[in-house]
Write a structure and sequence with these properties.
The chain is of the alpha+beta class and 376 residues long. The protein folds into two domains: 226 residues, Rossmann fold (3-Layer(aba) Sandwich), CATH 3.40.50.300; 75 residues, OB fold (Dihydrolipoamide Acetyltransferase, E2P) (Beta Barrel), CATH 2.40.50. 22% of the residues lie in helices and 35% in strands. It is built from eight helices and 20 strands. The strands form four sheets. The protein has a six-stranded mixed β-sheet, with helices on both faces. Strands 11-12-13-20-14 form a five-stranded mixed barrel. It has a five-stranded antiparallel β-sheet with strand order 15-19-16-17-18, with no helix packed on it. α2 crosses α3, α2 packs parallel to α4 and α3 crosses α4. The longest helix is centred in the middle third of the chain and has 18 residues. It is globular, with a radius of gyration of 25 Å.
Length: 376
C-alpha cells in the first residue's frame, strides 16, 4: 500500500488481523490502533494471543489474514530486521561474553555503513546516562543485578531510536519491590524518550500502573480496550471485571431494567440495584447477570455498631485476615452471599483494633458501588 503521512498515522495499526498455527487460531480478526507516544499494553492469561500480537508487530510472525501498519506503512512481508522496532525480551537476551558497553553498542555495529567508533562511544555513553547506568560500560553482564540487566536491555533497544519499543514481560524475573521500582522507571523513561512502548503482560497491576491504554484479550480476541480507569470502573462484562482488579460477584436474574439502573434478584434472595456498565449491551428483564462490587467499596464495622450505614447491610464472621501494611484484606463468611472480600484502608482502622478471625462484623455498601454485568 502507498505510504501515508507518518505525522497523521498511529504508530501501530492492525486491520482484521488473524494468525493461525495449523488448526489453532492464535489471533482472531482483531483491529488495534496505537497512537504515537503511547504506553500500550496487551493484557490477558496465557494463550490469549497477546504475545503473538507482539510478534506480529516485531515481524517474527506474519499474519494469516489482515494487515499490520507501522507509522502508516504496511509491513506485511517485511522481515523483522527491516522494521523500525526493537524488542526487550523476558530473559533480556544479553550477551554474557560482552561487557555492558558492547552489549548496548551491538545494534549500531550491525549497521551498514557502520558509524565511526567515536560516534558509537558517544551514543553508548548518552544511552547509559538515560537509563541511569553511567560508568557501568566496562562491567560484565553477570556482575549486574537483575534491575541493572533490565536497564542494559532497554538501553540496547533504545540506542537505535526505534519508532516502537516492544516489551515482552520484561519485569517477570524481578522480585516484587524491584519490579515496582522498574515500573516507575519505565514510565519515566517512556515519557523522556517520547516513543511508543508496547507491553505484553499477564500481570494486571503492571498493566494498570504503567499504561495509557490496555487491550484485554481472550482466546485470540479483544474483549475490551480502554484506559486503566475505564477498564477498572467500567468493565463491559464479568471476564474483564474479574481480570482487572479484585471483585465480589453475586449471581442473579434481572427483574427490572432501564437505561440508568438494573435490579437483580440475587440467588440468595435480596434484590440488588446497580448501574449498567457503559459500552455494554443493556441487559433485559429475565437475563442472567452478576452484580459486581469492588472490595475497597465495602465498609466493615463491629456487628453492634449503630453508626454503620449503607444501602446493603450484611452480617458475617471474619474467616481470614491479611495485613498488607497500607490496608487489611478480610474474607467475610456470610449466610446469604457466601464469602465476601473487603479491603479496609489503614486510615479507617486507626481508631480501632484489627478484626480477627472469628469476630462478628457488619459489612455493607452503597448502591453507587454496584455494577451490573453480563455474566460471561
Amino acid at each position: 500500500m502507498a505510504e501515508q503521512d507518518y505525522s497523521e498515522s498511529p504508530d501501530i495499526r492492525f486491520v482484521g488481523v488473524s494468525k493461525w498455527f495449523g488448526d489453532v487460531v492464535a489471533v482472531d480478526k482483531i483491529d488495534i490502533s496505537v497512537e504515537r507516544g503511547a504506553f500500550f499494553s496487551f493484557l490477558g492469561p496465557s494463550g490469549c494471543g497477546k504475545t503473538t500480537s507482539l510478534r506480529l508487530i516485531a515481524g517474527f510472525e506474519q499474519p494469516t489474514e489482515g494487515d499490520v501498519f507501522i507509522g502508516g506503512t504496511s509491513v506485511v512481508g517485511v522481515p523483522s530486521h527491516k522494521r523500525p522496532v526493537n524488542m526487550v525480551f523476558q530473559d533480556y537476551a544479553l550477551f554474557p561474553h560482552m561487557n555492558v558497553a558492547d552489549n548496548i553498542a551491538y545494534g549500531l555495529r550491525q549497521r551498514k555503513p557502520k558509524p565511526p567508533k567515536q560516534e558509537i562511544g558517544n551514543k553508548v555513553d548518552e544511552t547509559l546516562e538515560m537509563v541511569r547506568l553511567s560508568g557501568f560500560g566496562k562491567r560484565r553482564v553477570w556482575e549486574l543485578s537483575g534491575g541493572q540487566q533490565q536497564r542494559v536491555a532497554l538501553a540496547r533497544a533504545l540506542i537505535n531510536h526505534p519508532t516502537v519499543l516492544l516489551l515482552d514481560e520484561p519485569l517477570a524475573a524481578l522480585d516484587r519491590k524491584l519490579r515496582r521500582e522498574m515500573q516507575m522507571e519505565l514510565q519515566t523513561l517512556q515519557r523522556d524518550v517520547g516513543i511508543t512502548f508496547i507491553l505484553v503482560t499477564h500481570d494486571q497491576e503492571e498493566a494498570l500502573s504503567m499504561s495509557d491504554r490496555i487491550c484485554i484479550m481472550r482466546e485470540g480476541q479483544i474483549i475490551q480496550a480502554g484506559s486503566p480507569r475505564e477498564l477498572y470502573d467500567e468493565p463491559i462484562n464479568r471476564y474483564v471485571a474479574d481480570f482487572v482488579g479484585k471483585t465480589n460477584f453475586f449471581n442473579g436474574e434481572v427483574v427490572e431494567a432501564n437505561n440508568s439502573s438494573l435490579s437483580v434478584k440475587s440467588e440468595s434472595g435480596p434484590v440488588l440495584v446497580g448501574a449498567p456498565s457503559k459500552g455494554a449491551p443493556l441487559l433485559k428483564k429475565g437475563s442472567s447477570a452478576c452484580v459486581a462490587v469492588r472490595p475497597e467499596m465495602i465498609s466493615i464495622s463491629a456487628a453492634v455498631d449503630p453508626d454503620h450505614q449503607a444501602d446493603i447491610n450484611i452480617t458475617g464472621q471474619v474467616k481470614n485476615r491479611i495485613f498488607l501494611g497500607e490496608h487489611s484484606e478480610y474474607l467475610i463468611a456470610t449466610e446469604g452471599f457466601g464469602d465476601v472480600l473487603v479491603l479496609s484502608p489503614k486510615t479507617s482502622e486507626s481508631n480501632r483494633r484489627l478484626f480477627a478471625p472469628g469476630d462478628q462484623v457488619s459489612i455493607g455498601w452503597m448502591s453507587e458501588a454496584v455494577l451490573v454485568l453480563e455474566d460471561t
